[in-house]
Amino acid sequence: xxxxxxxxxxxxxxxxxxxxxxxxxxxxxxxxxxxxxxxxxxxxxxxxxxxxxxxxxxxxxxxxxxxxxxxxxxxxxxxxxxxxxxxxxxxxxxxxxxxxxxxxxxxxxxxxxxxxxxxxxxxxxxxxxxxxxxxxxxxxxxxxxxxxxxxxxxxxxxxxxxxxxxxxxxxxxxxxxxxxxxxxxxxxxxxxxxxxxxxxxxxxxxxxxxxxxxxxxxxxxxxxxxxxxxxxxxxxxxxxxxxxxxxxxxxxxxxxxxxxxxxxxxxxxxxxxxxxxxxxxxxxxxxxxxxxxxxxxxxxxxxxxxxxxxxxxxxxxxxxxxxxxxxxxxxxxxxxxxxxxxxxxxxxxxxxxxxxxxxxxxxxxxxxxxxxxxxxxxxxxxxxxxxxxxxxxxxxxxxxxxxxxxxxxxxxxxxxxxxxxxxxxxxxxxxxxxxxxxxxxxxxxxxxxxxxxxxxxxxxxxxxxxxxxxxxx
Amino acid sequence: xxxxxxxxxxxxxxxxxxxxxxxxxxxxxxxxxxxxxxxxxxxxxxxxxxxxxxxxxxxxxxxxxxxxxxxxxxxxxxxxxxxxxx
Lengths: 473, 86
Description:
The complex is a heterodimer of chains A (473) and B (86). With 473 residues, chain A is an alpha/beta fold. Chain A has helices at residues 3-11, 17-35, 43-59, 101-108, 151-158, 175-181, 215-225, 260-263, 270-285, 301-316, 334-345, 348-361, 367-390, 413-417, 424-429, 458-471; strands spanning 38-41, 70-74, 112-117, 164-169, 184-187, 207-212, 255-259, 289-293, 393-397, 433-440, 446-452. In chain A, 40% of the residues lie in helices and 13% in strands. In chain A, strand 2, helix 4 (101-108) and strand 3 form a beta-alpha-beta unit. In chain A, helix 9 packs across helix 16 (458-471) and helix 10 (301-316) crosses helix 13. Chain A starts with a helix and ends with a helix. The mean pLDDT of chain A is 97. Chain B is mostly helical and 86 residues long.
């Protein structure tokens, strides 16, 4: 049952939220041990929240647009009194003294947090294998990864453990796992959704967004979490655009550009390239015009990203020093305690990025690496702006490949980074993008097609995503 | 030292090779001409976001301190900060 349908029957009093929650908890009981999509299942809390929703309905109150909808939360979103680990040993056992704004909004809308989902440690990775608590497996094929870093939320939604999920996307961490797990994933415009209570990775890029079985459910959840938050000074101080009223408006007359630098990127699997072409044809059939377009500097997106994101991460992760929360490994003085704590608490990928970021920011290299990457970021923004003079939306693959086998890329960090080659450019521009399932490859693994739109272009992006969803084989 | 990571020799050896490959890939940014291109630090044109200077509710001190590895007299406790070295 869709999130939309669950909310309507619960609001009408035709079904108890408690029964909905029991159904989802039974699914989790049956299959979670083979997937490991959750770090913590919130069975007790979910039952209590469902009882509160049912009590509201019984009183004649409207619990809200997510009434009784089980929601999976990525475990980098703070939940008051409930462990929040970022899948890192350095935060094991930490119980935040406050909840993220997105969590407050989900609960205020009647949504039921059902668990905290696994991720690559501190959201650094593309397979959910970099978790201190073990990898998550892809529900479509247990030998494959679910993608990452929001792989736990993607797997939980794909497996039916939650009706919808929240992930965070810095360079593709919602869209790529959505593509690999066969669900819808949305990276909203930078600033559309509050990051208050989202544990920071790269602050100029991080954004929270929905994962769901359908485009309509993604729109429902995004409408609930979007909008200005005085607790996040980077949130856009304007009302968020409505999405569902125009969802079925179609694509007649829209101009669609296939981005050559994404569609022809090195390593794009032929099945994936073919799916993008077929999705474009489907849009053409519904009245859109389709042309190829070049966004030249997008080819340098991944290089720029792997200087900018680690630089910001090395600064953000300085707070894990063994002083205020989490792990401490003692030492004779504070500097030694800090260094021992961080060596024991961080996994290999986090250490790589902290080292890389510290290097990119260091005095002798700042201008050549970090500074140059920031100037390339400006070129990417300009090139996208030129493309959006001629096109309403852009199209490309989400991930160059379908789900790969566990262990396939763990020995070579750079090969893992290339998983993000199609998602990173638009992240650097701060623009929204959606991944929509579109058929399967020769091995039966899901393929995702990516729809890109200019800043705050979510309404048109959702219309295109919806049209692709309807046309999907 | 800047990163405050007490890496083992084995970690240092492995990281040296991995980071060299990553830096080589990332250095591709240097092939673009960026003369007169300003840097972008943040994708939104938001600057100096202010709010009224009104005191609001704050986190409960005991609840926050309860999460710390060591506390004393309502404060975080750390090992000595200065070394004996001259």
